[in-house]
Specification:
The protein is α+β, with helices and mostly antiparallel strands. The chain contains 4 helices and 6 strands, in the order ββαααββββα. The strands form 2 sheets. A 3-stranded antiparallel sheet has the order 1-2-3, with helices on one face. It has a 3-stranded antiparallel sheet with strand order 4-5-6, covered by helices on one side. α1 runs antiparallel to α3. The protein is elongated. It starts with a strand and ends with a helix.
Length: 133
């Protein structure tokens, strides 16, 4: 991942493949949801069995994941500085996850930043730009 600050346009340019990954995840969640709806469409005739309960669970999880991917996550490669609220760092298990919190309530994950030196360089770049850490 390469993150650059374009001073002329005042944007952050992020080079990663997150947009493609999220597209595949959205496609798979929609596929799961349509399959679950197809299998569950005659539940009033056949009743609720074990397999149909599993598909209710799969459909519900797919719907929740799809909601987060559409309304809570963002994937643009060029983000204007005025749309960035702050840099957020959180720890899940042992791994540190860095993300940009945007003004519209969405977040842009920076998944390929893994080492402490990369995190330090990123924080220094954002403090020079004037974005809170």
């Amino acid at each position: 991942m390469k993150i650059k600050y374009n001073e002329a346009e005042k944007i952050i340019e992020i080079q990663d493949k997150l947009n493609g990954h999220y597209f595949i995840l959205k496609f798979l969640m929609i596929l799961n949801l349509t399959t679950a709806l197809y299998i569950l469409h005659d539940i009033h005739k056949t009743g609720l069995g074990v397999i149909k309960m599993i598909w209710v669970f799969v459909g519900t999880v797919s719907l929740i994941v799809l909601y987060f991917l559409i309304f809570k996550k963002s994937t643009p490669n060029k983000i204007p500085i005025e749309k960035i609220d702050h840099l957020k760092q959180r720890t899940i298990f042992v791994r540190k996850i860095i993300s940009l919190e945007l003004n519209n309530g969405k977040s842009r994950d920076l998944n390929e930043i893994k080492t402490k030196t990369q995190i330090k360089e990123l924080k220094e770049m954002f403090s020079e730009i004037g974005i809170a850490n």
